[in-house]
Amino acid sequence: AERVRYAIPEELGRGSLVGPLARDLGLSADELPARKLQVASAGKKQLKYFRVNEENGNLYVNERLDREEMCGESATCSVSFEVLVHNPLNVFHVEVSIEDVNDNSPVFSKAVLDLEIGELIPPGARFPLEMARDADSGSNSLLTYQLTSDPSFSLSVKEKPGGKKQPELVLERPLDREKQSSFELVLTVVDGGEPARSGTVLIRINVTDANDNPPVFSKNVYETRVAENLPAGSLVLRVVATDADVGSNGRVSYSFGNVPDDVPSLFAIDSESGAIRTVCPLDFEEKNKYIFGLEATDGGGLTDHCEVHIDITDENDNAPEITILSLSSPVPEDAPAGAVVAVVNVNDPDSGENGQVSCELSGEAPLSIVASSGGSYKVVTSGALDREQASEHRVTVVARDRGRPALWSSTELVLEVSDVNDNAPEFEEAAYSAYVAENNAAGALVLRVQARDADAGANGRVSYWLAGGSAGAAGAAALVSVEARSGALYAQRSLDYEQCREFTVAVRAQDGGSPARSSTATVRVFVLDRNDNAPRVLWPAAAAGEGPGGAAAPPFEVVPRSAEAGYLVAKVVAVDADAGRNAWLSYELVQASEPALFRVGLHSGEVRTARAVGERDAAKQRVVAVVKDHGQPALSATATLHVVLAESLQEALPELSERPAGAEAAEAAAELQFYLVLALALLSALLVLSVALAVLARLRRA
Questions:
Q1: Burial degree of 34 (CB within 10 A; 0-12, 13-18, 19+)
Q2: What is the pTM of this model?
């Protein structure tokens, strides 16, 4: 909060050192590149006078400084400005005092002063002379007057209010126009500078006939107070000088004395009435006080001088000026509370309450404004920033003075919030389920997972990886793979429901931030069954052992001849490796030696007698049943059952022993031979019938 103060003389050349600013702010040389020390550009005219060297952090003069041009007649002169440092952003206040040097010589407004003095004026009469003006200040503006030696005249200096010295010409002895009608004297003025500067004016005195009374102002100093922005032509003050003479010697005219150049452009004096009026509107912000001299001259050439003090009172005619000195945009969303994001300068040229400014922020944003010294304000974060909720904040800086009526101005601040990787990817679902029919093609799409990351750029770019599962990451990789960009899961090979009915895979979603954030979702894959397995008959088996000659002896069942209808002969047992409808089995009888003798349970597979066994039924029976599942299309298998009709196993053994090796084949051959003989007999009968019919037909025609 303290100001850094320097003092330099005026008229220093460009590039002159003002002071080691970086060192005085506590910044080391290593910090300078990152902190970016710079003079704030607040739009003020005086800020062009200085610059900061980026390499060493020293403050230098940027252009010639003229104290008189910058501060006028003010006793003190200083330039105040702000300097900014970044990373983190902060503002410091600097004040440079401009010390006066004796660079201005005292000057008179005229090169020649003409005086007319009557010959009858007695010795001791005093004639006020024009005061010289020196633009310097302090001791450099202390003036001393000297007059060339002449026995008829001497120089006297009169002390005036404010410390100024009024030179006066004193008549030392009577004049005689007939002896000497004119005099020429040189008035020299010397200032108090080191080295001293001087100026001269020629005084030409014309000795006239008697005009023995000079004009006299009613006051030595006239003071008045006027408001700024008075319209042109407004009366400011009226001065009055009287002359005891009559005629032309008593007629007084008024004029400006040795005044600054700006006075005649602002004020005008009526030479006859002494009324001082404004030439144009006055501006308190440019200058708040004017001091100048007036001269009253009678018709005989005698003069008197007075001083006019005009104070300009301020009006609230200037709205506050808002300048954004620095804006740190974008600001990272993890910036701590209290971080400086902008530095704003508010300046109101008015004075008093009219120049007292309050500043506030308008708008919904986690920002606040904090007053600093020198009319600067810091915009700081008042809470946490979240880019995902608001990627930018727009607030209005409103500055309002305390005048009546109050004036205000505003400017908009747009603060962008940059992304920080503070959000992990989130899956749409914590657990996914996928269904894949078995026997799929390798590379078939299983499922597409998707995770969203609220961050932006690389922080929100999501990649997918396998992180394990029921068989571990290696085992899961053998079954499925995931595409890193899209999150699509593909089958690595054909799946078999009978080997693996379901498995789980863990998929990790990871963003591209640094450090990276990730989350995991579980994918449960269910393998759907297809009808790819035919039923398998467990009983009766195709062969139970080895028979004579190495042939397989088929299994058989013994059924007593006394068996009634519904007698359980055997049960066909079959299984299907599929599931669901694909494994539902039904049984049908497709072939039997005596089809009417046996039946098969549709769902149980039980082979029972359909009627009572008769004596005429062959002792050996062969029953073939088909087992079908309910898949689409259905698959089937056949079971062959050999039945022996006998009361006991001992009775059935002879029947079985008569069956030589290959009996089944012999029976089949005999059966085939029977049908062939039958077919041959039928063909022969047809041939004989055809011949007989042909003979009969011929005989009939004959």
A1: exposed
A2: 0.58
Mean pLDDT in residue range 583-598: 88
Whole-number Å distance between alpha carbons of 302 and 210? 11
With bands split at pLDDT 50, 70 and 90, how would you rate the model's confidence at 543?
A: very low
Secondary structure (H, E, C), 444-505: CEEEECCEECCCCHHHHCEEEEEEEECCHHHHHHHHEEECCCCCEEEECCCCCCCCCCEEEE
H or E, element range at 696: helix 663-701
Alpha helices in 640-662 (DSSP H): 649-657
The residue type at 232: A
Q: Measuring CA to CA, which residue among 316, 307, 256, 261 is closest to residue 284?
A: 316
- Measured distance CA(435)–CA(437) in Å, rounded: 7
User: Within 13 A of 335's CA, how many CA atoms are on the CB side?
Assistant: 28
Residues 6+ positions from 100 with CB-CB distance below 8 Å: 9, 10, 67, 77, 136, 137, 138, 140
Q: What span, in angstroms and rounded, lies between the C-alpha atoms of 456 and 463?
A: 14
Whether 51 has a pLDDT exceeding 80, the answer reads yes
Could you tell me where the DSSP H helices lie in 226-381?
Answer: 262-266
CA distance linking residue 14 with residue 57, whole number of Å: 17
Query: What six digits make up the tokens of 394?
Result: 């727009």
Output the six-digit token pair for 618.
């062959």
Q: Work out whether strand 331-332 and strand 408-418 pair parallel, antiparallel, or are unpaired.
A: parallel
Starting at the edge strand found earlier in the chain, the sheet holding 586-592 runs 556-559, 636-645, 620-628, 586-592
670's enclosing H/E stretch is helix 663-701
Cα 371 to Cα 90, 344, 359, 397, 402, distances in angstroms: 13, 10, 8, 13, 16
* Cα 540 from Cα 554, distance rounded (Å): 9
Residue 666, pLDDT above cutoff 60 = no
Q: How far apart are CA 127 and CA 115, in angstroms?
A: 9
The whole-number pLDDT of residue 546 equals: 41
658, pLDDT greater than 60: no
Q: Residue 661: what pLDDT? A: 44
Dist. CA 678–CA 498, nearest whole Å:
52
Distance CA 524, CA 470 (A): 9
Neighbours of 489 (CB within 10 A): 27
Please answer whether residues 168 and 128 qualify as being in contact, where contact means their C-beta atoms are separated by less than 8 angstroms: yes
Task: Give Cβ neighbours of residue 442 (< 8 Å, ≥ 6 apart).
Answer: 491, 492, 493, 494
Half-sphere exposure of 669 (CA within 13 A, CB side): 5
Residue 647: the pLDDT is 80
Q: Tens digits of per-residue pLDDT, 419-468?
A: 899 999 999 999 999 999 988 999 999 999 999 999 998 999 999 999 87
Set out the domains of the chain in order of their start, with CATH numbers: 3-99 (2.60.40.60), 112-208 (2.60.40.60), 216-313 (2.60.40.60), 321-418 (2.60.40.60), 426-528 (2.60.40.60), 536-543+554-653 (2.60.40.60)
Give the 3-state secondary structure of residue 136: coil
CB within 8 A of 689, min separation 6: which ones?
none
Q: Which residues pair with 98 in a beta bridge?
A: 8
Nearest of 206, 157, 150, 146 to residue 173 by alpha carbon: 150
- Residue 75 region by backbone torsions, left for phi larger than 0, else alpha for psi between -120 and 50, else beta: alpha
